[in-house]
Here is the input.
Amino acid sequence: MQIVNGKVQELVDPTGIIDGQRYEFLLTVKLDEEDELFNEEGTGLRMLYSVKDGERKMLTYQFYELATESPFDVEWDEEEQASAEQYCNEHFPEF
Here is the structure.
């Protein structure tokens, strides 16, 4: 899996119910044609992080088809997870 590009944004809770901050990473990934996540329309990866008391924690992730934003119900392997988390850590906004 190769991360082609990505963006991050802070998710604001107008109600104040959520403790800490939430950040959403939207990544575009390139995969081998043999990979079960490969999609000719392109594959995206959404990752949600929590930041509380200076500690970052990944809450959830979801692969999806870029064209329709339809999610895939699959799990990633350790190598894909490590690659995605490294990208997020390198591009995490300062808080």
Notes: The CA atoms of residues 47 and 61 lie 4 Å apart. The mean pLDDT is 89. The first strand starts at residue 2 and ends at 11. The chain is about 15% helix and 45% strand.
